[in-house]
Design goal:
The complex is a heterodimer of chains A (276) and B (559). Chain A is mainly alpha-helical and 276 residues long. Chain A has 2 domains: 23-147 and 249-276, no CATH class; 148-245, no CATH class. Chain A contains 10 helices and 2 strands. Chain A has a two-stranded antiparallel ribbon with strand order 1-2. Chain B is an alpha/beta fold. Chain B has 2 domains: 2-239, Rossmann fold (3-Layer(aba) Sandwich), CATH 3.40.50; 292-501, Rossmann fold, CATH 3.40.50.300. Chain B is 36% helix and 18% strand. In chain B, strands 6-7-8-2-9-10 form a 6-stranded mixed sheet, with helices on both faces. A 6-stranded mixed sheet of chain B has the order 15-16-17-13-18-19, with helices on both faces. In chain B, strand 18 and strand 19 (503-509) form a beta hairpin. Chain B is globular and about 70 Å long. Classes of the chains: A mainly alpha (276), B alpha/beta (559). The interface between A and B is large, with 51 and 69 residues.
């Protein structure tokens, strides 16, 4: 018995496999490597940026890409329409409160909460940080929501010369995740029945968690041993190469996506320098 | 050939020689620890290549020594199917899974697909090729594992306890597929199996290992089982139930010749004999007291949005032995966990002698009911066997002297005295199981619930555990087991509850439920072989209701 069908951790979700996507949903059809390599310079730029302009550009870009290139679901509308603004608002205000007051003391006070005055400088720092986080998530999810683990592994083997023994072993390991979740739940129940470390609070919960480690690891090692026997018995690693039924080619559109992303990133960089 | 595991004290198997003829089906039998699985792993080189061990003698596969060849090259000649279907699934779809082996061989894509299709059609999974293997039933996943082995197109197929983790419907599926493979006669099969009743129709030859891993018998399966049945029993080898029944009858002077190996043969042999009329056994005692110790009323339970238990009502008298049966996913475990308070039942739905587990804290709960998980390791929380038993008592702040006395008593009762200072994880499988039963009962619970206590264990160990439960039950403990092994259930349970899709189909006395073939079939279960054989009797009406070996005339000393 294994739990977690179709969960976010399932590397094999059928609903994001490229051949099943329609033409409009173009993100699914792109090479997973293009969807990683394209946004990487943008991620670095967002990490280094100090103004609101740069992350805002990428939040908008990612929203547009996801709206046009991903399959429509009610949850995607909720995410973009409600969760994203809420995320930025909540984190923006939280980071505002955390901002170093001495650095922003000279900026005008926007409003006051009791004796605590919120300055425009603090607001700017807070919201810039929130937008940077949102932009990073967006850049990672654009590729992440539209690629499957196996396609990424295949593409890395075909184009980056990743040894297939490593790639496919990693893939087999992703199957462990839902299994361990299930196992951990069982162990937790079992320990609770034994009356293990009752009580609340961080100390009791740490003591409880430590007790889960040994049974969980024992189970994991045993399972991994069995899986590796089963793989060996089916000639895994026998030859230097293995047949690949699914070719994940790098096509013109992948280059267009990747280079387009880089050009946009460069344009944002130039614009940001110019605005300053 | 002899094999000694790294750090092992003695070889097992020890000095075994055999040849596998193309097209034959070889059954390997032996008590646990005799090295059956090691033998299987040596056939395709996993021993000694993947598992460190010393191999003396030689294993030659299609003319090559396994010691010199790689596992991968050998896997082109010998394909394996293991016990646990879960640990054999590597990819995310049924088709990818079957293609995995041929892809590793570097075959051209067209051939990979052709092999995959043939193999999947052979096990009736071609229509489901796009699905995730997790969605298949246990039997379905094991059929998939067979397809994966078939796709290697190797002339030898080794199956190591392929049905030990399956429910009866799954076992039937696997044997239907195996029968098809055997019928083609183009492969040799090595089968390690404890569940002999469905296997007997397929096998030609048998290799019996003794407790030390030496060859006890090697030859024609049917004649060896028939002529050496008593010696095999002595060795601790499990026999087909029909054969056990015949040996049982032999002691009462009822001689069946030739000895039957399948339910069909048993029925036929008994039908032509003159048999004494059986007096009906006394009705099973309904319990020691006639007030229900357990009452469940209107219990429904949701997991996420799915209703996993639907309006369950049942009551159980103290001193009963209840078996909850059903296929995988029928809700058996959930029901018993809710009864034992492992998962919180809605308030007012479960009553343990007047107490509601939903309102009890763990300390009080464990004085009423103990729960034993499927994997006993999950329950161990301390570092020695003695501490493990003392843990439940210390939680209650009991006097150290009393704890010591109680722990000594339990160690003795569960035959663990010698292991008292060992780490629980280092015990043998049977010891772990006994310890987990001990820890569940240490606080004085009068009810014991066990989740699949025989799952994945060999028959000898399962029998040993059930005998322990029987003993506890005779001493007054109410027992609830979740199981899908109907023969074991029918040998020990007083009551049976049948579950399907989260609903309780029926609860009743053992004889009443097990006699209802339609009910069992609807629940996805199958009649145990002995009952099937007895129900087929036309000449002896009084024998038709026999459900257990113990009800047959004859000595009771066989078990």
């Amino acid at each position: 018995m294994s739990g977690g069908h179709g969960g976010a951790l399932d590397a094999y979700r059928a609903d994001i496999q490229a051949p099943l996507a329609s033409r409009r949903e173009y993100l699914y059809g792109l090479n997973p490597l293009a969807k990683i390599l394209g946004p990487i310079p943008a991620m670095i730029l967002v990490l280094l940026s100090g103004t609101m302009f740069t992350p805002l550009c990428f939040v908008i870009l990612c929203a547009v890409l996801m709206l046009t290139g991903l399959r429509w679901q009610r949850s995607s509308l909720i995410t973009l329409g409600l969760a994203l603004p809420l995320f930025i608002a909540v984190f923006g205000f939280s980071f505002t409160l955390w901002a170093d007051q001495r650095r922003v003391a000279h900026t005008p006070v926007v409003f006051e909460i009791g004796s605590f005055s919120v300055t425009s400088g603090a607001l700017e720092i807070g919201f810039t940080t929130a937008l940077r986080l949102a932009a990073l998530f967006g850049l990672a999810l654009t590729g992440g929501l539209s690629s499957t683990g196996p396609d990424l592994v295949r593409s890395s083997i075909q184009h980056l010369h990743l040894p297939y023994r490593i790639g496919y072993t990693a893939l087999a390991a992703t199957r462990f995740v839902p299994r361990f979740g299930h196992e951990l739940e069982t162990i937790r129940q079992a320990h609770r029945v034994r009356g293990m470390s009752p009580g609340r609070g961080p100390i009791a919960s740490t003591r409880r968690s430590l007790g889960y480690v040994v049974p969980l690891l024992t189970g994991a090692i045993r399972h991994a041993g069995r899986v590796s026997l089963a793989m060996d018995a089916r000639a895994f690693g026998a030859h230097d190469t293995r047949t690949e039924r699914h070719q994940i080619p790098v096509r013109t559109r992948d280059w267009v996506f990747m280079i387009g992303f880089w050009v946009f990133t460069a344009a944002v960089l130039v614009a940001a320098l110019w605005i300053r | 050939m002899s094999i000694t595991h790294e750090g092992g004290a003695r070889p097992g198997p020890d000095g075994v020689s055999l040849e596998l003829v193309p097209g034959e089906v070889l059954l390997v039998l032996g008590p646990s620890g005799s090295g059956k699985s090691t033998l299987a792993l040596a056939l395709d080189g996993l021993v000694p290549h993947a598992i460190p061990a010393t191999l003396t003698g030689s294993v030659r596969v299609a003319g090559t020594e396994t010691v010199g060849a790689s596992v991968a090259t050998l896997s082109e000649t010998v394909a394996m199917v293991f016990q646990d279907p879960d640990s054999q699934m590597i990819t995310g779809s049924v088709l990818d899974e079957v293609c995995f082996g041929p892809e590793n061989l570097g075959l051209p894509v067209a051939e990979v697909l052709e092999r995959a299709e043939t193999a999947l059609r052979e096990v009736d999974l071609w229509e489901r090729r796009t699905e995730n293997p997790d969605r298949l039933s246990g039997g379905g996943r094991q059929r998939l594992a067979i397809a994966c082995a078939l796709a290697m197109r190797s002339p030898v197929l080794v199956l190591d306890e392929p049905t030990a983790n399956l429910d009866p419907a799954g076992i039937e599926e696997v044997y239907r597929v195996l029968a098809r493979v055997v019928a083609r006669r183009d492969r040799s099969i090595v089968l390690i199996e404890h569940n002999l009743d469905p296997a007997m129709d397929l096998v030609n030859r048998v290799l019996v290992l003794d407790g030390l891993g030496r060859t006890a018998f090697l030859g024609d399966a049917h004649s060896i089982l028939r002529t050496h049945a008593a010696e095999l029993l002595e060795l601790g080898v499990w026999l087909p139930v029909s054969l056990m029944a015949a040996l049982h009858l032999h002691e009462a002077g009822i001689v069946l010749d030739p000895l039957p190996l399948t339910p069909r043969e048993l029925t036929a042999a008994l039908n032509v004999l003159d048999l004494p009329v059986l007096v009906d056994p006394p009705p099973p005692t309904p319990g020691i007291w006639d007030t229900p110790q357990l009452e469940v009323t209107g219990l429904s339970l949701k997991r996420g949005r799915r209703l996993v238990l639907r309006d369950i009502n049942l009551s159980l008298d103290a001193g009963s032995f209840l078996a909850v049966i059903g296929t995988n996913g029928a809700g058996k475990t959930t029901l018993v966990q809710a009864i034992a308070g492992v998962i919180q039942p809605p308030r007012g739905t479960v009553s343990l002698g007047g107490l509601d587990p939903a309102r009890l804290d763990v300390r009080t709960l464990t004085t009423r009911i103990g729960f034993v998980f499927q994997n006993p390791e999950n329950q161990f929380v301390t570092y020695t066997v003695a501490n493990e038993l003392a843990h439940g008592l210390r939680l209650r702040g009991i006097d150290q002297a009393i704890i010591d006395a109680r722990v000594d008593d339990l160690l003795e009762r569960f035959a663990l005295t010698e292991a008292r200072d060992q780490h629980p994880f280092l015990l043998s499988g049977g010891q772990k199981r006994r310890l987990s039963v001990g820890t569940a009962l240490v606080a004085g619970a009068s009810m014991l619930a066990l989740d699949e206590p025989t799952f994945g264990q060999d028959r000898a160990r399962a029998g040993e555990l059930l005998a322990l439960l029987h003993e506890l039950n005779a001493a007054g403990t109410t027992i609830i087991v979740v199981s899908h092994d109907l023969q074991l259930v029918s040998d020990f349970a007083t009551h049976v509850a049948v579950m399907k899709d989260g609903e309780l189909m029926r609860i009743g006395t053992r004889d009443e439920i097990l006699a209802d073939e339609d009910l069992l079939h609807e629940a996805g279960l199958r009649m145990p072989p002995l009952i099937r054989a007895m129900r087929g009797l036309t000449a002896h009406p009084s024998w038709r209701t026999v459900t257990r070996l113990a009800e047959l005339p004859g000595g009771g000393g066989l078990r």
